[in-house]
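Please decode residue identities from the backbone states below.
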């Protein structure tokens, strides 16, 4: 054990690439099964297709979906990193358009149980890896755990996915409430999925955003209205992402358009935001807070 710590300390002192500002996004929802994994995967692919360097991290604890949706069974996951300190770069896999991804497998909780040295090693690995990408997307599990909350509070922005169903909306509201209480400057965007009539989807967004503003003083932008599309179900069954399997499907078209608009808005000189600290720095702060609990 002592040897391992020693080894990690040595590796820590060896490589210290400063983290280039990659943009981190957590895709979250209140209720489960609303389409997070499919959105995240296909949005990531659409960004990659536009020439962006994208890393997708499957953080759905215990039931990572991304590898199933990709039809790939990976030999390595984030668990290998925790269990035997495998370099993060070793567990990164490559998908279509050069998309990089890391499959989940098991607990974020394990991360917060790491000792100080191991945790520093994890963060330095993260900084090194992140610096090679333009966008880092986190596919979060449904709802919130103490651990996933720490991750979400550390990102640059949150994409909130919901359907038009009231249950999905109230759960999404609860997520925004919890996060905005802890991080006032968090940036939120909303994606309404399984929309059948655009006007209705827009109405849902409009009522939701008004409520957020009225009761929480939080603003949320509309990122996309994603159509209900049978091709998505077919793609899931074939274990192939819809944007590569059915590029002409409506869902794929909307996804492509959403990625383009998103990139344009970012290029249009969106303010750097108040969140100047890097993802790793913020996560470190939350880890310390959690680690030195005194009451
Ligand atoms: N736009 C859509 N059109 C048709 N079916 C959809 C659409 N979005 C999602 N679905 C269906 O919902 C299922 C669940 O989607 P997905 O796995 O992406 O949800 P999730 O939010 O990641 O779920 P979990 O919370 O369990 O991780 C899909 O397999 C598909 O059958
Ligand atoms: Mg999922």
């Amino acid at each position: 054990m002592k040897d391992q710590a020693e080894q990690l300390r040595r590796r820590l002192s060896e490589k210290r690439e400063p983290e280039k500002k990659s943009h981190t996004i957590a895709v979250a929802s209140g209720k489960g099964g609303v389409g997070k994994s499919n959105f995240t995967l296909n949005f990531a692919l659409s960004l990659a297709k536009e020439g962006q360097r994208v890393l997708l991290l499957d953080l759905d604890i215990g039931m990572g979906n991304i590898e199933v949706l990709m039809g790939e069974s990976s030999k390595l996951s984030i668990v290998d990193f925790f269990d035997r300190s495998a370099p993060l770069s070793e567990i990164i896999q490559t998908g279509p358009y050069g998309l990089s991804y890391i499959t989940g497998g098991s607990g974020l909780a394990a991360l917060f149980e790491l000792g100080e040295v191991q945790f520093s090693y994890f963060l330095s690995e993260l900084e090194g890896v992140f610096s090679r990408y333009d966008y880092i997307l986190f596919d979060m599990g449904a709802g919130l755990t103490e651990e996933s909350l720490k991750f979400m509070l550390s990102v640059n922005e949150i994409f909130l996915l919901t359907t038009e169903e009231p249950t999905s909306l109230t759960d999404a509201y609860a997520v925004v409430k919890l996060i905005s209480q802890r991080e006032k400057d968090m940036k939120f965007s909303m994606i309404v999925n399984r929309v059948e009539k655009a006007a209705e989807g827009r109405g849902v967004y409009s009522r939701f955003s008004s409520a957020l503003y009225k009761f929480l003083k939080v603003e949320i932008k509309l990122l996309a209205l994603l159509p209900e599309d049978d091709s998505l179900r077919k793609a899931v069954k074939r274990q192939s992402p819809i944007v590569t399997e059915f590029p002409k499907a409506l869902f794929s078209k909307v996804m492509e358009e959403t990625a383009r608009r998103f990139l344009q808005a970012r290029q249009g000189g969106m303010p750097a935001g108040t969140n100047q600290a890097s993802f790793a720095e913020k996560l470190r702060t939350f880890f310390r807070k959690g680690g030195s609990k005194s009451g």
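Observation: Residues 36-37, 60, 65, 139 surround magnesium ion (ligand 2) (CB under 6 Å).
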